[in-house]
Automatic annotation (TrEMBL):
Residue stretches spanning the membrane: 12-29, 49-67, 74-95, 107-128, 149-179
Species, as recorded: Streptomyces chryseus
Domain of life: Bacteria
Name recorded for this polypeptide: Membrane protein
Pfam families for the chain: DUF6198
Length: 215
């Protein structure tokens, strides 16, 4: 196995694991989750399943939607479905609930920054988009609508559904939306692996709203 492939695989799985950890930290902060996290938590509240299991189930369901859009998943796509959910449940089992606001605010900030690190690691590994990103780009291609509009519509629908089911929507959701693009873009440059054909660094596909997040 080449050194480059070893590095890319390491980045893929470390990034996915850290993404799950960061999502769990946001849950423990209790100040609002990222859009898909709101949906996962809401479904978890209604079904009694752990949030990690719900994340896996939702990811698998979204991946099935790729079939009519003729998207082909990569190693990173399939790994995304499983690793993030497992890492979330593992972290939630280890990290206790925090009740004091003085502890929840640092957890929120740490979770958002760690999510940016994880995003940079995962996307820069170049093993395919996450299932939720594939849904976005697939709908963009099928409908002819802009990526901005498609992504906004998906996230609004996801947040509204999750909130209606009991998911956590709050200041953390807004702060995440504002911070994750710049953070992910920065860490994509930090962890970029040179492209094999040109020796240049790969940053990431970008939408009019910023970096595509690997969910």
């Amino acid at each position: 196995m080449s050194r480059e492939l070893t590095r890319r695989l390491s980045q893929l799985y470390v990034g996915l694991a850290l993404y799950g950890v960061s999502s769990a930290v946001l849950v423990r902060a209790g100040l609002g989750l990222e859009p898909w996290g709101v949906l996962h938590q809401g479904l978890s509240e209604k079904t009694g399943l752990t949030i990690g299991v719900v994340s896996i189930a939702v990811g698998a369901a979204v991946l099935l939607l790729w079939i009519p859009m003729r998207h082909r998943p990569g190693l990173g796509t399939v790994s995304n479905v499983v690793v993030i959910g497992v890492a979330m449940d593992g972290t939630l089992a280890l990290v206790p609930e925090v009740h004091a606001l003085a502890g929840r605010i640092p957890l929120l900030l740490a979770g958002i920054v760690l999510n940016g690190v994880a995003t940079g690691l995962y996307i820069a590994a170049r093993f395919g988009p996450g299932p939720r990103d594939g849904l976005m780009t697939g709908l963009h291609r099928v409908t002819g609508r802009s990526l901005r509009l498609v992504r906004t519509a998906i996230e609004v629908a996801v947040v509204a559904t999750g909130f209606a089911l009991g998911g956590s929507l709050g200041v953390g959701t807004v702060l995440y939306a504002l911070a994750i693009g710049p953070l992910a873009q920065f860490f994509l440059r930090v962890f970029a692996v040179p492209a094999p054909d040109a020796g240049s660094t790969v940053v990431a596909a970008r939408t009019p709203r910023g970096v595509i997040i690997p969910r």
